[in-house]
Amino acid sequence: MSDEISSVNESSEIETPVVSESNTDENTELSNEASLSSNNSTEKEIKQEIKRLKKLKIKYQGKEIEEELPFEIEDRPEAVEYMKKHLQMSKLANEKSQHASKLEKEVADFIDLLKKDPRKVLSDPTIGIDVKEMAAKIIEDEIAEASKSPEQIAKEKLERELAELKAEREREKKQKEEEDFNRIKEQQYQHYNMLMEQAFKENSLPNDPYITKLMADYMLAGLKEGKNISPLEIAP
User: Fold this and answer.
1) Residue 111 belongs to what domain range?
2) Which residues make Cβ contacts (< 8 Å) with residue 59, sequence separation at least 6?
3) What is the pLDDT of residues 108-129, one digit of tens each?
Protein backbone atom coordinates (compact mmCIF):
# COMPACT_ATOMS: atom_id res chain seq x y z
CA MET A 1 0.00 0.00 0.00
CA SER A 2 2.78 2.39 0.87
CA ASP A 3 4.44 1.60 -2.43
CA GLU A 4 1.26 2.62 -4.25
CA ILE A 5 1.09 5.91 -2.33
CA SER A 6 4.75 6.60 -3.09
CA SER A 7 4.14 5.87 -6.73
CA VAL A 8 1.17 8.23 -6.81
CA ASN A 9 3.18 10.99 -5.12
CA GLU A 10 6.02 10.65 -7.60
CA SER A 11 3.66 10.74 -10.57
CA SER A 12 1.77 13.76 -9.20
CA GLU A 13 4.88 15.95 -8.95
CA ILE A 14 4.81 18.89 -11.49
CA GLU A 15 7.91 19.30 -13.54
CA THR A 16 9.14 22.92 -13.55
CA PRO A 17 10.45 24.00 -16.97
CA VAL A 18 14.04 25.08 -16.96
CA VAL A 19 14.59 28.49 -18.54
CA SER A 20 18.02 28.73 -20.00
CA GLU A 21 20.12 31.92 -19.65
CA SER A 22 20.31 32.22 -23.44
CA ASN A 23 16.51 32.40 -23.71
CA THR A 24 16.45 35.19 -21.10
CA ASP A 25 19.04 37.20 -23.04
CA GLU A 26 17.06 36.75 -26.24
CA ASN A 27 13.87 37.99 -24.59
CA THR A 28 15.68 41.02 -23.15
CA GLU A 29 17.19 41.82 -26.55
CA LEU A 30 13.79 41.54 -28.25
CA SER A 31 12.30 43.83 -25.60
CA ASN A 32 15.04 46.42 -26.13
CA GLU A 33 14.59 46.28 -29.90
CA ALA A 34 10.85 46.76 -29.51
CA SER A 35 11.41 49.74 -27.20
CA LEU A 36 13.96 51.27 -29.61
CA SER A 37 11.60 50.74 -32.54
CA SER A 38 8.82 52.43 -30.57
CA ASN A 39 11.10 55.40 -29.76
CA ASN A 40 12.16 55.71 -33.41
CA SER A 41 8.53 55.67 -34.50
CA THR A 42 7.71 58.40 -31.98
CA GLU A 43 10.63 60.54 -33.19
CA LYS A 44 9.55 60.07 -36.81
CA GLU A 45 6.00 61.10 -35.91
CA ILE A 46 7.28 64.23 -34.15
CA LYS A 47 9.48 65.12 -37.13
CA GLN A 48 6.55 64.61 -39.46
CA GLU A 49 4.36 66.84 -37.30
CA ILE A 50 6.92 69.70 -37.21
CA LYS A 51 7.68 70.32 -40.87
CA ARG A 52 10.72 72.48 -41.60
CA LEU A 53 11.45 74.49 -44.73
CA LYS A 54 14.74 74.93 -46.62
CA LYS A 55 13.33 77.03 -49.48
CA LEU A 56 10.70 79.73 -49.88
CA LYS A 57 8.91 81.25 -52.83
CA ILE A 58 8.76 85.04 -52.67
CA LYS A 59 7.41 87.77 -54.92
CA TYR A 60 9.98 90.33 -56.05
CA GLN A 61 9.44 93.00 -58.71
CA GLY A 62 6.25 91.30 -59.88
CA LYS A 63 7.89 87.88 -60.27
CA GLU A 64 7.72 84.76 -58.10
CA ILE A 65 11.16 83.33 -57.35
CA GLU A 66 12.40 80.50 -55.12
CA GLU A 67 15.11 81.35 -52.61
CA GLU A 68 17.40 79.10 -50.57
CA LEU A 69 17.15 79.84 -46.83
CA PRO A 70 20.31 80.39 -44.75
CA PHE A 71 18.84 77.96 -42.19
CA GLU A 72 15.75 75.81 -41.81
CA ILE A 73 12.58 77.34 -40.35
CA GLU A 74 9.37 75.81 -39.05
CA ASP A 75 6.47 75.76 -41.47
CA ARG A 76 4.36 78.25 -39.52
CA PRO A 77 2.60 81.28 -41.05
CA GLU A 78 4.33 83.75 -38.70
CA ALA A 79 7.85 82.41 -39.34
CA VAL A 80 7.26 82.08 -43.10
CA GLU A 81 5.89 85.64 -43.42
CA TYR A 82 8.77 87.10 -41.39
CA MET A 83 11.38 85.26 -43.48
CA LYS A 84 9.72 86.31 -46.75
CA LYS A 85 9.92 89.98 -45.76
CA HIS A 86 13.54 89.52 -44.68
CA LEU A 87 14.47 87.94 -48.03
CA GLN A 88 12.69 90.68 -50.00
CA MET A 89 14.48 93.42 -48.04
CA SER A 90 17.82 91.64 -48.47
CA LYS A 91 17.39 91.40 -52.26
CA LEU A 92 16.38 95.07 -52.44
CA ALA A 93 19.45 96.10 -50.42
CA ASN A 94 21.74 94.02 -52.67
CA GLU A 95 20.20 95.55 -55.79
CA LYS A 96 20.67 99.08 -54.45
CA SER A 97 24.28 98.29 -53.55
CA GLN A 98 24.98 97.00 -57.07
CA HIS A 99 23.31 100.06 -58.59
CA ALA A 100 25.42 102.37 -56.41
CA SER A 101 28.63 100.54 -57.40
CA LYS A 102 27.72 100.81 -61.09
CA LEU A 103 26.92 104.52 -60.74
CA GLU A 104 30.19 105.15 -58.90
CA LYS A 105 32.15 103.48 -61.72
CA GLU A 106 30.34 105.52 -64.37
CA VAL A 107 31.12 108.76 -62.52
CA ALA A 108 34.79 107.78 -62.13
CA ASP A 109 35.01 106.99 -65.87
CA PHE A 110 33.37 110.33 -66.73
CA ILE A 111 35.81 112.30 -64.57
CA ASP A 112 38.77 110.43 -66.03
CA LEU A 113 37.61 111.22 -69.57
CA LEU A 114 36.93 114.83 -68.60
CA LYS A 115 40.52 115.19 -67.46
CA LYS A 116 41.91 113.67 -70.65
CA ASP A 117 39.72 115.49 -73.18
CA PRO A 118 37.48 118.13 -71.54
CA ARG A 119 36.48 119.76 -74.83
CA LYS A 120 35.17 116.48 -76.24
CA VAL A 121 33.22 115.68 -73.08
CA LEU A 122 31.71 119.14 -72.66
CA SER A 123 30.79 119.35 -76.35
CA ASP A 124 28.47 116.37 -75.94
CA PRO A 125 24.89 117.64 -76.69
CA THR A 126 23.49 115.53 -73.84
CA ILE A 127 25.47 117.62 -71.34
CA GLY A 128 23.99 120.85 -72.61
CA ILE A 129 27.04 123.13 -72.15
CA ASP A 130 28.06 125.79 -74.64
CA VAL A 131 31.85 125.45 -74.66
CA LYS A 132 32.42 128.85 -76.27
CA GLU A 133 30.18 130.59 -73.77
CA MET A 134 31.96 128.85 -70.94
CA ALA A 135 35.34 129.92 -72.30
CA ALA A 136 34.15 133.53 -72.58
CA LYS A 137 32.96 133.41 -68.96
CA ILE A 138 36.34 132.12 -67.82
CA ILE A 139 38.12 134.98 -69.60
CA GLU A 140 35.74 137.52 -68.00
CA ASP A 141 36.43 136.10 -64.57
CA GLU A 142 40.16 136.27 -65.17
CA ILE A 143 39.92 139.93 -66.22
CA ALA A 144 37.77 140.74 -63.16
CA GLU A 145 40.26 138.98 -60.89
CA ALA A 146 43.18 140.90 -62.45
CA SER A 147 41.44 144.25 -61.80
CA LYS A 148 41.22 143.60 -58.03
CA SER A 149 43.63 145.22 -55.62
CA PRO A 150 46.07 143.05 -53.66
CA GLU A 151 44.16 143.83 -50.43
CA GLN A 152 40.84 142.71 -51.94
CA ILE A 153 42.39 139.54 -53.30
CA ALA A 154 43.94 138.77 -49.88
CA LYS A 155 40.61 139.47 -48.13
CA GLU A 156 38.63 137.20 -50.45
CA LYS A 157 41.25 134.49 -50.13
CA LEU A 158 41.04 134.70 -46.33
CA GLU A 159 37.23 134.52 -46.45
CA ARG A 160 37.38 131.42 -48.66
CA GLU A 161 39.88 129.74 -46.34
CA LEU A 162 37.75 130.52 -43.28
CA ALA A 163 34.65 129.17 -45.03
CA GLU A 164 36.51 125.99 -46.01
CA LEU A 165 37.88 125.62 -42.48
CA LYS A 166 34.39 126.01 -41.00
CA ALA A 167 32.98 123.45 -43.43
CA GLU A 168 35.78 121.04 -42.56
CA ARG A 169 35.09 121.44 -38.83
CA GLU A 170 31.40 120.75 -39.46
CA ARG A 171 32.25 117.62 -41.42
CA GLU A 172 34.58 116.38 -38.68
CA LYS A 173 31.93 117.04 -36.02
CA LYS A 174 29.27 115.21 -38.00
CA GLN A 175 31.61 112.30 -38.71
CA LYS A 176 32.52 111.98 -35.01
CA GLU A 177 28.86 112.05 -34.01
CA GLU A 178 28.10 109.29 -36.53
CA GLU A 179 31.06 107.21 -35.34
CA ASP A 180 30.00 107.61 -31.69
CA PHE A 181 26.42 106.68 -32.57
CA ASN A 182 27.51 103.60 -34.53
CA ARG A 183 29.86 102.54 -31.72
CA ILE A 184 27.10 102.82 -29.10
CA LYS A 185 24.65 101.05 -31.41
CA GLU A 186 27.09 98.17 -31.93
CA GLN A 187 27.69 97.90 -28.17
CA GLN A 188 23.95 97.77 -27.51
CA TYR A 189 23.48 95.20 -30.26
CA GLN A 190 26.16 92.94 -28.79
CA HIS A 191 24.68 93.38 -25.30
CA TYR A 192 21.11 92.51 -26.30
CA ASN A 193 22.30 89.69 -28.56
CA MET A 194 24.07 88.13 -25.60
CA LEU A 195 20.92 88.48 -23.47
CA MET A 196 18.82 86.93 -26.25
CA GLU A 197 21.13 83.91 -26.47
CA GLN A 198 21.08 83.57 -22.68
CA ALA A 199 17.27 83.71 -22.66
CA PHE A 200 17.07 81.03 -25.37
CA LYS A 201 19.49 78.79 -23.50
CA GLU A 202 17.99 79.15 -20.02
CA ASN A 203 14.42 78.61 -21.26
CA SER A 204 15.25 75.91 -23.84
CA LEU A 205 13.77 78.01 -26.66
CA PRO A 206 14.62 77.41 -30.34
CA ASN A 207 16.69 80.14 -31.98
CA ASP A 208 13.85 80.97 -34.36
CA PRO A 209 13.57 84.28 -36.29
CA TYR A 210 9.91 84.61 -35.36
CA ILE A 211 10.61 84.26 -31.61
CA THR A 212 13.52 86.71 -31.90
CA LYS A 213 11.31 89.29 -33.65
CA LEU A 214 8.53 88.78 -31.10
CA MET A 215 10.91 89.41 -28.20
CA ALA A 216 12.38 92.45 -29.97
CA ASP A 217 8.88 93.88 -30.51
CA TYR A 218 8.12 93.52 -26.78
CA MET A 219 11.40 95.24 -25.89
CA LEU A 220 10.69 98.09 -28.35
CA ALA A 221 7.21 98.55 -26.94
CA GLY A 222 8.77 98.78 -23.48
CA LEU A 223 11.25 101.43 -24.60
CA LYS A 224 8.40 103.53 -26.00
CA GLU A 225 6.83 103.39 -22.53
CA GLY A 226 10.13 104.35 -20.91
CA LYS A 227 10.86 100.82 -19.67
CA ASN A 228 14.10 98.94 -20.37
CA ILE A 229 12.90 95.34 -20.64
CA SER A 230 15.45 92.52 -20.76
CA PRO A 231 14.95 89.42 -22.98
CA LEU A 232 15.29 87.36 -19.80
CA GLU A 233 12.13 89.02 -18.46
CA ILE A 234 10.17 88.30 -21.65
CA ALA A 235 11.10 84.64 -22.10
CA PRO A 236 8.60 82.28 -20.39
Assistant:
1) 50-116
2) 65, 88
3) 888 888 888 888 878 888 878 8
